[in-house]
Inverse folding.
DNA sequence: GCATCTATTTAAGGTATCCTAAAAATAGGT
DNA sequence: ACCTATTTTTAGGATACCTTAAATAGATGC
């Protein structure tokens, strides 16, 4: 239980880098709903423990050891989530939340055996399996927030993530459903509204919304 | 996640009182492997929140609300543990540990549906169901440590609990298995050894051992 | 009824994590 | 190359737990 938090940082760095890239402090902070200051503090610790490569003002990446840990964690998350949705028929959002909490506590044996119940091979190398992502939708690949897209960028919605669940619901009701194609048509300024095309429709959304929608670029 | 600790205190108070009695600070402290000072501190908080009745120097009991919460928690623990042992065929000790961690995070819906998979009715009122106890053995009823038994007291071993798992293994290897009949033959002083009868055998054990064996008195 | 022992609480301090506000580093436009 | 806007870090402080050591309440033997 003592390391749950560290593990949360690891898995979220994996989610944003897929193990091969770098994330900036601020991006990780907004993804995890904490302040950049908290991230900085934690990165120093994880760095000392050899789990991440961290250089001041340069962002973080996972070390080899960090990737292994994070992948195992992500695997447990996937398995638990799939077990909850596919076997117990629990709603996705709840399944995700519970998987987030439980992923730190279940043993590998438990994960393996649940995996057999689901009937799908789920291993730590996310590229070889068709898993639900952290939100229960698609395999995780490096994804960015719509607020970070450049004009003309195209992609598919990976998942929605926001501190307020009302935001997620609102977005879903507007048609921002994981898997849909999305393109940034116009972005006037960093702070202003964006005009985006989603499927056939064209919608304007503000920065907060754009920060809660994560996309896999084409 | 923030309330896991409070919940641990609640469920352990329930385990030692079955919701109807009082536990002393020290007993709870040694059961939970923390210092009495920590218990005192937490009891003040839980008391302020209306979950326990606490009076300085008098011990604690659960309030009605506290009993409800603790029972629901215990139910989730039982279900998770049974799921792990009966469905996934995980070893008892590991199942217990994982259930301890997970009981705080799974929803009632998840618990209900797992319960159906196990095929046994498990409800919050422990008296109406034959569940594994916290250690996977028997229904919890009020239980006391052997170190608290009086000369002549008889009972059945409920479970073993100690900070060191080596202690538990040692005790099991000596024949202290949940379910066995046990009687305190002689107890010279509080700190000294006890002589006890377990099944047909008579054994002497020291105070540490006696503090790790919990018994349901006849 | 008092001395003494034990249980309990209080006091003071530690660690992990979070936050806000201020300071410092970097990056981008000219 | 410099100014400015943004990002990141540092500093200082809060909270939830935990600990040890000292103080106090309650129980027990005579």
């Amino acid at each position: 239980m003592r390391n749950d938090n560290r593990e949360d940082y690891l898995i979220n760095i994996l989610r944003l880098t897929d193990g091969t890239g770098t994330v900036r402090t601020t991006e990780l902070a907004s993804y995890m709903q904490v302040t950049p200051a908290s991230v900085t503090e934690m990165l120093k610790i994880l760095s000392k423990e050899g789990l991440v490569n961290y250089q001041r003002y340069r962002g973080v990446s996972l070390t080899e050891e960090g990737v292994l840990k994070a992948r195992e964690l992500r695997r447990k998350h996937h398995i638990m989530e799939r077990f909850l949705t596919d076997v117990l028929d629990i709603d996705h959002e709840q399944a995700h939340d519970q998987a987030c909490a439980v992923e730190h506590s279940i043993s590998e044996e438990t994960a393996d055996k649940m995996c057999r119940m689901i009937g799908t091979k789920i291993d730590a190398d996310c590229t070889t399996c068709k898993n639900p992502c952290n939100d229960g939708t698609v395999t995780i690949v490096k994804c960015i927030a719509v607020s970070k897209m450049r004009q003309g960028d195209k992609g598919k919605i990976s998942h929605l993530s926001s501190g307020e669940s009302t935001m997620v619901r609102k977005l879903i009701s507007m048609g921002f459903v994981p898997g849909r194609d999305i393109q940034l048509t116009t972005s006037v300024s960093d702070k202003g509204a964006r005009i985006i095309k989603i499927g056939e429709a064209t919608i304007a959304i503000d920065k907060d919304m754009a920060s809660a929608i994560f996309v896999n670029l084409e």
